[in-house]
Structure formats: structure tokens, C-alpha cells
Amino acid sequence: MKVVVFYPKDSFTPGQQKDLASLGSVSYTKIEIHYQLKKY
């Protein structure tokens, strides 16, 4: 599975990075990205 995280890798502890990696291929962004959810 491909996992995309909208936070930099260094925002996570090594243990958290390992847990995410256990799910599959992990991609991190270089900066934090915030998306606002639209309310309908």
C-alpha cells in the first residue's frame, strides 16, 4: 500500500516512522500541508 503523509518525516519519532512503514511505501512532504474540508 502507498501511504502519503502531509507532514515532514522529522515530525515523527523513529517508532512512528516504523509503524507507518509497516503499512507499505511511505511518502512524506517537505513542509506541513493543511487542507481545509469543505462543509456542505
How would you describe this structure to a colleague?
The model has no long low-confidence stretch (mean pLDDT 92). The protein is globular, with a radius of gyration of 12 Å. It contains 1 helix and 2 strands, in the order E-H-E. It has one domain (1-35). By secondary structure, the protein is of the alpha+beta class. Helix 1 links the parallel strand 1 and strand 2. Helix content is 20%, strand content 20%.
**Percent of residues in helical segments?**
10-25%
Supply the number of structural domains: 1
Shape, principal axes of CA atoms: globular
Q: Which sequence of strands runs across the widest sheet?
A: 1-2
Tally of contiguous helical segments: 1
Strand content: 15-25%
Q: How far is the N terminus from the C terminus?
A: 30 Å
Uncertain segments of ≥5 residues (pLDDT<50)?
Answer: none
Largest sheet properties: 2 strands, parallel
Order of helices and strands: EHE
Q: Helix- and strand-based class?
A: alpha+beta
Radius of gyration, taken over Cα atoms and rounded to an integer in Å: 12 Å
Average pLDDT works out at 92
The number of distinct β-strands equals 2
